[in-house]
Amino acid sequence: MEKKISTKQRILDTASNLFYYQGFNNTGINQIIAEADIAIGSLYKHYRSKNDLLYSYLQTEEEKFFTSLNEYLGKASDPKEKLLKLVDFRIRLQEEAQCSGCHFIKINAELGRKDECVNELVLNHKAKQKAYLHEILDELSTSGSQHLETSLLANILFLMIEGAVVSATITGNTNDLKSVKAYIQQLF
Amino acid sequence: MEKKISTKQRILDTASNLFYYQGFNNTGINQIIAEADIAIGSLYKHYRSKNDLLYSYLQTEEEKFFTSLNEYLGKASDPKEKLLKLVDFRIRLQEEAQCSGCHFIKINAELGRKDECVNELVLNHKAKQKAYLHEILDELSTSGSQHLETSLLANILFLMIEGAVVSATITGNTNDLKSVKAYIQQLF
DNA sequence: GTCTATAAGGAGATAGAC
DNA sequence: GTCTATCTCCTTATAGAC
């Protein structure tokens, strides 16, 4: 017994794709309702405004990100392997998305920090990514040699990956993400 | 004899600020002419379209960036000092701009790679930044010990800085750019 | 809950007077 | 070269029928 995807979900899926691939400001309500094949009245019954749709989009992406990441790393136990797989995860995401970048960086670039709700979601997402890296590096420093202060190194690795994802958005390839992998290989 | 800034220049300055601080898609022609205090007819005598204004904006920023950078590094001769000053330069730029990020990364995030002219300007700017870092590292590897393949290290430093500038846009501070400086201090 | 019709305003761009 | 007036289209959002 297959359950039909709800209208509300279909609206969110359509809007999410458009926001991500062509930008929030470049996406009109009319295009969303046309591609979701619904009437405008239906949209505003489910979502108060275009901004409400944006918040739902970002919240969903936040949940999807860490669920998928944990799933992807699931088997790995060695911290170095975890680091490499974490970068692999980002490579896979970008290759699946035609190198369209990070949802949160893009929204921040479009809207700045003015919308408090959006900014909080972006800040929170990035803080969680950084904390995730810090956890992995904690395992590394207790099991092996201590190269650098763990906190600084976690920060630096985070920034490298951020830069490499942005570079993927600009160049359309994942070469720089692969450079990050090569650097991690040499570092530990 | 002070020369008055031309109307054309004033249009470009106004548009550039608006594009940078509130985004390209968030900036309307009406706002540009209002803030530049000119009539719409005048704008279209000087620029064919809003896109034409965008190209001029990016070209000007490209020139300003490397002119200012060379000026800032002018005195430095030691390659390690050059690296640190290069990051200092980015810190200063972000602090002067209330951490509003990189002109080119932001435009790429808003418009993607669809507009060939914009994408070429962004790609070219980033390639020049990377090449600049490579040059400095070449001096380092001939004068001192060779830690890593120069090309990979230049890449990695570039990505770190890119990530730290994006982080400044998100957090509103330059802490991560300062982490990059700390990392460079330890690296060489 | 989904629909159509429409409001109210802003977008980018052009014509033509001065 | 600068101006005003205007065109056409699209924007987000609401009202009210079914």
The greatest interface between two protein chains, and residues involved on each side, is:
A-B, 43 and 43 residues
Major sheet description of chain A: none
Radius of gyration of chain A, in Å, reads 19 Å
Query: Stretches of chain A where pLDDT falls below 50 for ≥5 residues?
Result: none
Keywords:
elongated; 188 residues; homodimer; Tetracycline Repressor, domain 2; 2 domains; mainly alpha; Arc Repressor Mutant, subunit A; DNA-binding
Walk me through the structure.
2 copies of one chain form a homodimer. With 188 residues, the first copy, chain A, is mainly α. Chain A has 9 helices and no strands. Chain A has helices at 7-22, 29-36, 40-46, 50-73, 79-96, 103-111, 116-143, 150-171, 175-187. The model of chain A has no long low-confidence stretch (mean pLDDT 94). Chain A binds a DNA duplex (18 and 18 nucleotides) through residues 7, 28-30, 38-42, 44-46, 49-50.
Question: Layout of helices and strands, plus pairs?
Answer:
The structure is a homodimer of 188-residue chains.
Chain A: H1 7-22, H2 29-36, H3 40-46, H4 50-73, H5 79-96, H6 103-111, H7 116-143, H8 150-171, H9 175-187
Chain A binds a DNA duplex (18 and 18 nucleotides) through residues 7, 28-30, 38-42, 44-46, 49-50.
